[in-house]
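Recall that a protein's primary structure is simply its ordered list of amino acids. Everything else, from secondary elements to tertiary packing, is in principle encoded there. The following example makes that idea concrete.
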Amino acid sequence: MDGHTTGVPQGPGGQNPAYRPAHRLHLSTTSTTPRPTTPSLQTMKVNGYEIAAGADLAGADLTDSDLRNVDLTGAWLGGAVLSGSDLTGAKLVGADLRHAICRSTVFVEADLHHSNLWHVDLREAQMRGALLSRAWLGSARLAGADLRGADLSGAWLTAADLTGTRMGAATLAGTSLIRTCMREADLTGAFAGGCDLRGAVLNGAVLRAANLTGAVLKGTALISADLSLADLVDVDMSDAQLDGADLTGIRHDGTTVWPAGFIPPPSGGISDHD
């Protein structure tokens, strides 16, 4: 577990130096997760802006717009305002939305694979079942967002605010959650195998029946968190804060690393390893 990285390298302005805006890249438009086929609006105009794959919509005001099923693959939406808009089923593969404002925006079942959501305001956004694998969400504001059933595998959420976020049954395999704030977040039944939660704050969070096998929780704050029935096999919890945490029925073994002097309850519960 010492082989884990320390997060995404940062360049000037907090941007990953290896990342280039999506509208300058030739990215695959094929999602890694199959999606139901739905009608797509190839080209349309909203508030005078042309909505299409690869469109330049930087700073566009698209507040309260109906953008269901639109194809914005590789579009440039930096600083755009999408608050209150409905992008259910929309395709935003490789789109660049850095610094966009998306408060209460609906992204249900939207495809945001490999998109750039750096510093995006997604407070109270509806993102159930959204595909966010390999997306960049560093320093994004997601407080109160609904990410139940979303796929965030391999995504980067370093220093993001996920306070009170609903992430039940979400996929967080290999996700970077270093220094995230996840107070009172609900990750019931989430699959978070191999995720990196170093320095994250999950005080009062619910991780009941979550699969955390192989995850790194060094120095993670889990005060009064609900970890009942969680799978903690091969998890590094050295220096974690577990005061008042509910560890009823957790699964662990000799590969689980506990804080110095901490005596865990007997291993139990149900695991995928059984």
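Confidence is low (pLDDT under 50) at residues 1-41. Strands lie at 44-46, 49-51.
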